[in-house]
Prior knowledge:
By secondary structure, the chain is of the alpha/beta class. The chain is about 40% helix and about 15% strand.
Amino acid sequence: MKWNEFAHWGEKIVAWAADYHATLRQRPVRAQSAPGEIRAQLPPLPPEEPESMEAIMADFERVVMPGMTHWQHPRFFAYFPANAAPPSILAEMLVSTMAAQCMLWQTSPAATEMEQAMVEWLRHALGIEAGFTGVIQDSASSATLSAVLTMRERATGFTGNKVGLSGQGKVRIYCSDQVHSSIDRACWIAGIGQDNLVKLPSSGRFHGLDGEALRAAIAADRAAGFLPAGIIGVTGGTSVGASDNLDEIVNIAEEEGLYTHLDAAWAGAAMICPELRVHLWEGVSGFDSIVFNPHKWLGAQFDCSVQFLKDARAQLDTLRIQPAYLTTSHDNITNFSEWTIPLGRRFRALKLWFLLRAYGLEGLRTRLRNHVQWAHELCERIRATPGLQIVTEPVLSLFSFRCDGDDQKQQALVDAINDDGRIYLTQGTWQDSKVIRFQVGQFDSTWEDVMLAHTVIEEIYARLMSAD
């Protein structure tokens, strides 16, 4: 392809993108294709000769689009959102065009210095105390792994990377039973092991970590010769929005000399609204590491996860490696490849700059406040519907419910709703029973989209009941 052809097709694809978003409500939210259906339409071998863009785009529409679940659909109420506001998409187009590898300051000074500025903008917006620095990661999973590795190294006197973990004692990490599976995976990859991730019971209105159980577990582990290393807190957990008492965790960590990491991947975005911080954010500035995903609720295109650090030196001492080919002659600069596990880095800060300038914090706050309000209104409508019960009350814009019947009935209802195509939900588990999760967070959702969910749920539930 020549660059003049690129300009022609670029115009056509931008027009396609605008039309795609304008017509999303006409599409089923979840892909309706059967397993193997897409793969069967792809040739077994690549072409030997070039093919025209006309043919490629025609096959894109014919083969690819029927197999896509539309995460930008205004009635996507499953999982958590992965938003892509228009300004962030445009910024990503610029990033893809320049195709810079921003691993060092000198490989693109603008990328490094804008990343520093965007982390500071967001620190201020979230009400985190001055003094925190940070880095843009690809996902919360990577930020959590970085924090767990730092916990491990700090507990072993920063010797684990050099001599390994043999003979160091069993490193222990503590969290509630409501943490995301990425915490488990981080402990696997860090060599700590699943058995040394101590999951403790959650309780109370916000299903948070039991402080007394945490103290007891740490004391018991020390007595047994284990090596307590860190505590991972959560605010706005994936299943039902579980949120720990952050002040309590910070106090215990200070008493025990442990490193702390807070997973606020979803809920962190809502903390730009001061009134939504109540019960969810007090004590946040006591944590050593905090992660939230602008690519979830804030509107930045995936991938974009911000990790704030109270003192970056511990993570740098864990991850920094400086072969000769990465050394530079500049002093007093930041090379963000030393802050993260991957060496290669994309220019992720640009889409944050576009996003924050295009909407302003108040424009983003309005969207978030609407989502929370609409979720509460929908919750009350479901509560008033015969045969449906609210299981966990709304935390921000997330709640869960059940219909009458056993777990099989819950799954049957979820499957029927998703096969209908007008909305998309997912199931979860709470206190050993299946529940149906609902969250509002798609960037272009309206009140009408959210309230339509009640119509769909009520209608399909009634159809299932009449069929029994």
